[in-house]
Amino acid sequence: MNYTAQILFALGAIGTLNSLLVALYFLIHPRLSDKSNRLFGGFLLILSARVLKSIFYAFSTEEPVWFLQSGPAFFGLIGPFVFTYTLSIVKPNSFWVKYGKYHLLFWFLTLILIAIFIPFKTNIGFNKEVLLPILNFQWLGFILSSGLVLRFEIWKQGRSIQFNWLAFMLTTNLILWVSFTFIRFDYFISGSIIFSFLFYSIFLYFLLNGKVTNSVFKRNSGKEPSFTNQEKDQLIAKLEAYFENQKPYKNPNLKIADISEKLGISSHELSRFTNQVIGKSITGFINEYRVEEARQLLGKESNYTIEAIGEQSGFNSKSAFYKAFKSQTGTTPAKYKARL
């Protein structure tokens, strides 16, 4: 290995090895036992393994190398981990998060079967020319799906530190996807160098911004504590008083951060409170007040159109108004008004 190759190897390997250590830290540290942290650790572990493999491929001088002979099958776990991690933050009570381990297990078993029945050693052409492109586009599909879910939740809840982090994380995934998909095998080392640069940039940012780090990667000692009866009563009283007196739900651009600031708690605590205590998401809680406001307006004699009543009630679109109204009343606004 010449001097230039040694420099390239060092640049690619140093970030990858450190990212493996960070991945293990997220997977085993007791104070990072939150599901989203464990999923992030799993994602970083698999992604680091892929980058490490590209380094082996670029600089290995002996054939066969055992790490290369494992084939690309396990690359198929990157996308599922990205998707499940994203949903664990934006929609923690969704089906994909509740049953995330089965989703990941499905892909794990599928990829194990591929590795067994289509081994890389005896099917090199198939693995490189067919399987690898399929897995690359599977990764892209999960990146785009995660981005769509995140975009929709930003539209509903507004931006937050966690959402900004996810947007950046998905963007870096897309950059890495492009580098590993369109760069020739002979230049795979460039993907690992890009990975090292991105890893250290993100690592230093979180290292220098403790507040952001604590918001994105929540530390705990296990299960989050439940609210006491006194806390429940106080928060419910404050929340209902705020909504009934100031009617913030009439603002179509109302964000969860606006409500949590008024109540003196974090957005995460408010979301956890409405889910655990009230039994519904914060969006569902807000829409209940909006639908009730719409019902009151529909019962009054006015020249307002139904669409205008939806806007007056705080809905930012006709479709959102109709969907929430029918979900809660079992009928459309027009049919409801006709029955009055």
UniProtKB/TrEMBL annotation:
Domain HTH araC/xylS-type: 233-339
InterPro entries, sorted: Homeodomain-like_sf (IPR009057), HTH_AraC (IPR018060), HTH_AraC-typ_CS (IPR018062)
Alphabetical keyword list: DNA-binding, Membrane, Transcription, Transcription regulation, Transmembrane, Transmembrane helix
GO MF annotation terms: DNA-binding transcription factor activity; sequence-specific DNA binding
Transmembrane segments: 6-27, 39-59, 71-90, 102-120, 132-151, 163-183, 189-208
Domain of life: Bacteria
Protein name: AraC family transcriptional regulator
Organism phylogeny: Bacteria, Pseudomonadati, Bacteroidota, Flavobacteriia, Flavobacteriales
